[in-house]
Amino acid sequence: MFPMEKHNQVAPWLQPLWDSLDFEKFPNAILLHGQSGIGKFAFAVQLAKSLLCEASNVTHKPCHQCEACHWFNTGNHPDFIALVPETHRKLLPQADYEADDSPKKTKAARDDADSETSDKKEKKNISIEETRSAIESLSIGSHRGGNRVILIYPLEMLRSDSANTLLKSLEEPPANTIFILLADRVDRVLPTIRSRCRLLAAPRPDRDQGLTWLNAQLPSISGMKASDSDIASIYDEQGGAPYSVLDSLIARHNQDEKDDLTIAIAASRFLLQSMAQGGRISWLETADKIHKAQYSFLLATIQRWVSDLQLVSQGGNPRYYPKHLSTLKGLSQTARVPKLLQYWKSLVQARRTENHPLASRIQLEALLSQYQQIFEG
User: What CA–CA distance (Å, rounded) separates 69 from 80?
Assistant: First the structure.
């Protein structure tokens, strides 16, 4: 994951949203939602830091100079609670999760880390034990007498028992406590939770703005080299999400074959090659080779490819894979439109349950088999 800057962590396309915030009359709970990989988390971390900043007589917070800001930067602010799954903790600012005395590391988290038999997929969720521990700590007054901030990401990954625990706190929020909730898919958040938050929609940048930002980040990464055309291609494939693109470039640069993102990218490329075969796709072999990659990542790839196929079938231009225009045109000649539309509905339904702990290989086989049928008479 791209290391955060020491100071301004608000992406330029999110700056208008930041400027619209009233820090003097800040709500008890906000729900920041938008596409994954556009900078919501960095925005939220900067927001938490600003709400905890203790500087006076400054026009803009955070000041980056006061004791509270220093504690926050080192991941040790006693009034900042971050509820994120184990797979996302590296996104937090310089927090040391390996130290046994870390104030942010709950007993439940340590138990998970010490258990060799714990289910790896479960670690993508926030446990009910962690949620209860965090909520119970809110009954104690803030350590420094100011605000207390609890950040939860991604909100839609909360299990039902954890979500219900959170809901109780939102219904009767503790004094001086601010909830910053983040979701990639706001439609998956319980309506009862949504109704108790101020909703903030995070916009995606336009293509030129996103690419300009990306090119500005690359010089700060030692040894990173990528051509403009390569960056633009990955940018389109990632749905115009600059942070996701940067993560992809860094994963490729580091050549870490065991990295989850590296595995997902390689599997996605193989998946695209297979789907380019249309009715000749070897769906069993494809599912066998890619099923160990993150299912939601693969599902997004399928959905983007099919979206482009629909656009080309209607005489339009592909949004995600413009370099595959000729292939998509060829496939559009044999694709059966009614089957294509039905397949799209199947993908939308699959996205709703993509985090369900089912065997991803079976799901992939079913989806790729159905894709093959699009091209059959």
Answer: 11
